[in-house]
Q: What sequence folds into this?
């Protein structure tokens, strides 16, 4: 189950569960669309993979036979922040940004 992290790991912008700006890699690293496009150039700082829009978890269980939705599986409240310097980020991104995510 997705963790639904509450913030961009780079700029610390709030990314609530229904945010259309939240982007994730296959390991759930979470960034806002602006950081992914302008700074990371679709390169995850940890795994080197690309990003996709984070799915929106429904607010409620629409089928009562299943315990689903934010009421049963709330978003994380633990904020995660990036530990890389601006120089480390730029070097990492520059090294692999021209390689398509499916070829990395």
A:
């Amino acid at each position: 189950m997705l963790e639904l992290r509450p913030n961009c790991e780079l700029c610390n912008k709030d990314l609530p569960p229904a945010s259309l700006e939240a982007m994730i890699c296959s390991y759930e690293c979470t960034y806002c669309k602006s950081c992914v496009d302008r700074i990371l150039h679709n390169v995850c700082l940890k795994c080197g993979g690309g990003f996709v829009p984070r799915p929106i978890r429904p607010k409620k269980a629409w089928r009562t036979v299943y315990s689903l939705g934010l009421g049963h599986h709330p978003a994380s409240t633990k904020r995660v922040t990036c530990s890389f310097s601006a120089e480390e980020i730029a070097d990492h991104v520059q090294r692999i940004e021209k390689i398509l995510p499916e070829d990395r």
Summary: The mean pLDDT is 97. The longest strand covers residues 22-24. Residues 21 and 34 are 8 Å apart (CA to CA). Helices lie at 33-40, 86-96.
